[in-house]
Design a protein that fits this description.
Layout (H helix, E strand, L loop, with lengths): L1 H8 L1 H33 L22
């Protein structure tokens, strides 16, 4: 099987595909690792506010039949 793949693509192209795939995986892992601390900081925030009015969706009412 490996011999067929080498014959079709050639060793140089397989080397390029392997390095591109490895670089993509590395960048993905770094991106995920970089996002984790930001999410932890965002979870600690408290947003305070006051509800001044309620809105109702169309077709909905408070009365039940």
């Amino acid at each position: 099987m490996l011999l067929v793949v080498i014959l079709i693509f050639g060793t140089k192209k397989l080397r390029n595909i392997g390095s591109d795939l490895g670089g993509a995986v590395k960048n993905f892992k770094e991106g995920v690792r970089d996002d984790e601390p930001k999410q932890a900081q965002q979870d600690d925030r408290v947003i305070e506010g006051e509800v001044t009015s309620k809105t109702q969706a169309k077709g909905k009412s408070d009365t039940h039949v």
